[in-house]
Amino acid sequence: MSGFDLSLYLDRLRIGHVPVTVEGLSRLQSAQIRRIPFEDIDPFLGIAPGVVSAEVADKILHRGRGGYCFEQNRLFQDALQALGFDVTRRLARVRKGARQGGARTHLLLICRIDGTDYLADAGFGGPTPLEPLLLHENAPQTAPNGSYVLHDDPGTGERVLFLRKPDEEFALYGFDDAHVSDSDIEAGNFLCTHWPQAPFPHHLMVKGYDGDIPLGLLDRQLHEAGEKRLLTSAEALHNVLCVRLGLVLPDTTIQALWDRIQVLSAPSP
Fold it and tell me: Is the CATH number of domain 6-185 3.30.2140.20?
């Protein structure tokens, strides 16, 4: 991709040369998920984030932010293409365990290496695999953070990604081979930030790593090491977002987030 600052991207991920191989793809996907937090701060505050390449690079690489799927996987795509990978975009319907998904509001990537297609996703706010998966493999596949499997859904014509749990397979999202244009991404981004039924305007959702420790934040509930606890102040929110996850946010944004969380969590009169 012309104009993409690959050196700055790799510096943010704290990695060096990435070969155009499966191992290189795995290394890059894992590093981006670990180093650039998933966050929906802008939509939660009523701001539609920019999703064209220059806007995404400015926000994430120059201003020290994270982003959600349309931003994360746009950045991931630009980096992969700058490295010489063969990349195709797809839009998925998030299922969250349901038999069918909703609107096409999740951006993911398909990467072809030596004639083999891989599902590569650095921007899913749910339990996304840290490493790419073989797209056309029907047997379970193991990533460092869990076991996954892909199945065809004849009812929808979609390829569906499942997280394998001890007693079930939990559907994450489904997608087909439909071409994805920049306009499709703009429309999906608009829907996610303005549609009343979308989760992003109503919930602060952040997911990232503090070293090797995965952290998940839903409004003021912090998930860490299998335990949950409630944040009780704007200072505690700042500690999670800025100190532990490394996001660069002014105090005014932290306070705006905390104020909105308080309003949305207040009991109805």
Answer: yes
Question: What pTM value is reported for the model?
Answer: 0.96
Residues 192 and 68: beta-carbon distance below 8 Å: yes
What is the residue extent of each domain of the chain?
Answer: 6-185, 203-265
Do the bridges between strand 205-210 and strand 169-175 make them parallel or antiparallel, or are there none, so unpaired? Answer: unpaired
Task: State pLDDT tens for residues 87-120.
Answer: 999 999 999 999 999 999 999 999 999 999 999 9
Helix (H) or strand (E) holding 209: strand 205-210
C-alpha 200/C-alpha 103 separation (Å) is 14
Residues assigned a catalytic role: 69, 106, 121
Amino acid at 96: K
Beta bridge partners of 93: 104, 174
CA distances from 46 to 120, 167, 237 (A): 29, 39, 19
